[in-house]
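Predicting holo structure, pyridoxal-5'-phosphate bound.
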Amino acid sequence: MSRFWSPRVKELTPYVPGEQPKLKDLVKLNTNEHPLGPSPKVLEAIRAEAGDNLRLYPDPNGDVLKAKLADYHGVSTKQVFLGNGSDEVLAHIFFGLFQHGKPVLFPDITYSFYPVYCGIYHIEAQAIPVAEDFSIRPEDYTGDCGGIIFPNPNAPSGRALALSGVERIVAGNPDVVVVIDEAYVDFGAESAIKLVDRYPNLLVTQTLSKSRSLAGLRVGFAVGHEDLIEALERVKNSFNSYPLDRLALVGAVAAYDDEDYFRHATDYVIRERQRVTAGLERLGFDVVPSAANFVLARHPGHAGADLAAALRERSIIVRHFNKPRIEDHLRITIGSEAQNDALLGALPDIV
Ligand SMILES: *Cc1c(COP(=O)(O)O)cnc(C)c1O
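Done. Tokens:
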């Protein structure tokens, strides 16, 4: 704390990202990165772009990438907003669409960045408890509010809500923006993008960080009615005109040009998820059914913090949240076959 800080900075409670340890040889299953690298075509495109033209600013609008995403998702380019990772997109959403002097609703067990955005923009947060089995109950999202947001599949539970449930929430709250954060949608849920033309209050965000193996490139986007997108463009152009650099723009386009690789890489994770789930259950864990690239699991005989610490001693890093309802759970990213073997090999000794 310093006397030079703006008063509001003193009140901030920043998000704490999963650790990125400098040590090599760790089995890193804590931040939901993809176990396979990006498509070779992405790397090729980035290499080709890495030249003298880096002296020039990138396209502030990212028109080529917008056209690619619009085409891929069957919408117009005016319905697409780009950001430096979907976290940045979400920040602009909270600023641009959620500041109405009313609480914003999201599940109690969910992405812990949402309350942080509420904090920085002085938005009241209202947590809606998920069911005992961690599922989101659409009927709970009613009443006067300033907006609604939840991930589908939800994180860190991994549970997916059927599109009919998503639609019920969107249709039931026509006077506020409902944001579906689809960071993990490619691993097993149905995208709400197909509903955006029917609901002017629906905004869907996605990221290239998870299913496209590009967490290091920082590309995310939102799709929705062009009036919602225009609000986000106004915020973005009042903050940073060039959120996506040249390498990110060409790399992202190349990722959508390699559908075969995308299928192969997502199938790999889904297959390994089934194997990890079965392996954990054999060891006595309760595993929440996951539609994402991670599983949330607890062992009835052990505290979550103890399990995480014991794994860490064996150089395996998973995510533990010191938070009511999930303090005895571990969120385990689905890794490579070898990493998952290491996890399943280490656990019998611990439990
Ligand atoms: C990972 C994640 C994001 C953010 O991803 P970016 O890397 O910033 O694109 C957003 N929402 C949820 C639920 C996530 O898990």
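The chain has two domains: 16-37+259-350, 40-256.
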